[in-house]
Amino acid sequence: MVILDGKTLAKKIRLSIKKEVNQFKEKGIIPGLAFILVGDNPASQVYVNMKTKACEEVGIYSINHRMPKEINEKELVDVIKMLNDNPMVHGILVQLPLPEHIDEEKIIEAIDYKKDIDGFHPYNMGRLARGNPLFSSCTPLGIMKLLEKYSIDVKGKDVVMVGAGNITGKPMALMLTNAGATVQICHIHTRNLKEKTKVADILISAVGKPGLIKEDMVKEGAVVIDVGISRVEGKVVGDIDFENVSQKVSHITPVPGGVGPMTIAMLLYNTLQSVKLKEQ
Ligand code: GUN
Predict the structure, then answer these.
(1) Does the annotation mark 239 as catalytic?
(2) Tell me: the pLDDT tens digits for 122-172?
(3) Fewest CB atoms less than 10 Å from the CB: which of 110, 115, 138, 272?
(4) Is 40 considered catalytic here?
C-alpha cells in the first residue's frame, strides 16, 4: 500500500513556483492575489490565513479584504469590480461559503474570468466541460497532479466520485472524463452507494462526513482519494475510515497531508498561470 504524499509534492511545486515568481520579479512584475473574506466563519478564516501564508512563502503579493457578514451584494460586487480593474491583481479569490443573503452565483460571475484563479466562473467551468480549460478548480487539479506524480493512469479506469459539489465533485468528474476515465458521480440522493463504490478502480470522496467510506465499500487494490476535512474530538479527519480501508487498497491519501496541501499549491499555480496569461 502506497500513501499518496500530497504534503511533499506540494512543497516541491511551491519551490518551483517560487523560482518562477522570482523570475517575474526580476522583470519588475509582482504576482498579486486578492482575498475576499466575508463574515467570521472560523474555518474560512483558517483557510484564508493558510493561503495568505502560502502566497508569502513563494513571494506572491496578497491583499486581504475582510468584510462584515452584513455587507450587501452590491458592496461586494463593487469591491470585485475594483479588483478586476486593478492591474496589480492577477487573481481574485472570494472565500466560500458566503452569508445566506448573498447570491453566490452573482458574486462568482462578477469576477473577471481571467482573474478567476479558483476556476469557479461559468466561463471557466464551461471551458473545462469542453475539454479546453483555462483555470480549473484547485482541489481536483491537485488530485490530478497527485495521480500523475504516482503514475496512476486514469485512462479507461472506472472512477466513482462521491460528492457532486461545484468545488470538487463536478470539476473532478470533468477532468477525469477529459483524461479518458469512466466516471460516475454519486451524491446525497444516490441509492445503494456501496454497490457503486465497491466496483471503483479509483474512489474519490468529497463529502465531509467522517467514516462515510468503510472497508466493505472499497474494492481490493483500489486507489482511494480522501477530500473530506472534518474535525472530530480536536483531530482533523477525512471521509475514509483510513485505518481499515488502507489495509486493502493499493494507494490512499492521508488526512491531513494528502489533498489539502495540493489544493493550496494549485492556487499558487493558477495565480502564476494568470500572471503568464497577462504578462507574456
Ligand atoms: N471554500 C472551500 N473551498 C474553497 C476553495 O477552494 N476556494 C474558495 N474560494 N472557497 C472555498
Answers:
(1) no
(2) 999 999 999 999 999 999 999 999 999 999 999 999 999 999 999 999 999
(3) 110
(4) no
Residue 94 in contact with ligand 1 by CB distance below 6 A: yes
What CATH number does the domain containing 108 carry? 3.40.50.10860
Q: For residue 109, how far is its CA from the centre of ligand 1 (angstroms)?
A: 15
Which CATH number fits the domain that encloses residue 178? 3.40.50.720
118 ligand 1 Cβ < 6 A: yes
d(CA 66, CA 167): 22
For the chain, what is the domain count?
A: 2
Instruction: Give the residue among 170, 140, 168 at the shortest CA–CA distance from 266.
Output: 140
- Across residues 230-256, what is the average pLDDT? 97
Q: What is the pTM of this model?
A: 0.98
Which strands form 158-162's sheet, in the order they lie side by side? 2-3, 251-252, 223-226, 202-205, 158-162, 182-186
**273 included as an active-site residue:** no
Mutation test residue for ligand 1: of 46, 47, 48, 83, the one with most atoms within 8 Å of CB: 47
Q: Which of the following is catalytic: 114, 116, 118, 170?
A: 118
Is the Cα dihedral 199, 201, 207, 209 positive or negative? Answer: positive
What's the gap in Å between 116 CA and the centre of ligand 1? Answer: 12
The whole domain housing 85 covers: 27-114
Q: Which three cell numbers stand for residue 225?
A: 482519494
Residue 86: inside a domain: yes
170 and 92 in a common domain: no
**Tell me: the pLDDT tens digits for 104-129?**
999 999 999 999 999 999 999 999 99
Residue 51 covered by a domain: yes
